[in-house]
Amino acid sequence: MSTTRFPASIATPARTIDDVTHQLTAIIEWSKQNNSRTGYFAALYRKVIIQAKKESRKACSMTGHA
């Protein structure tokens, strides 16, 4: 496993679901470049976040909330 540190932008607290998605994508890319298994969890979690966002949008449209 790599001992290279994550870029600071990945460690910045996320404020939105889109921020989380972007950070997870950055972790996945970092993991590929550094031959790190850290990206496995990030890839799975990213899929879950994207699906949760889709379901949230669908629920909001069904209830009339923005």
Write the layout of secondary structure elements.
Blueprint: H1 8-11, H2 17-33, H3 38-63
Please explain how this structure is put together.
The chain has helices at residues 8-11, 17-33, 38-63. The protein is mostly helical and 66 residues long. It has one domain. Helix 2 (17-33) packs antiparallel against helix 3. The N and C termini lie far apart (44 Å). The model has no long low-confidence stretch (mean pLDDT 85). Pfam families: DUF5995 (PF19458). InterPro entries: DUF5995.
Structural class: mainly alpha
Question: How many angstroms does the end-to-end distance come to?
Answer: 44 Å
Low-confidence stretches: none
Strand residue content: under 5%
Count of separate structural domains: 1
Number of beta-strand segments: 0
Q: What is the N-to-C succession of helices and strands?
A: HHH
Question: How large is the radius of gyration?
Answer: 15 Å
Question: What keyword list fits this structure?
Answer:
66 residues, mainly alpha, elongated
Brief overview:
71% of the residues lie in helices and 0% in strands.
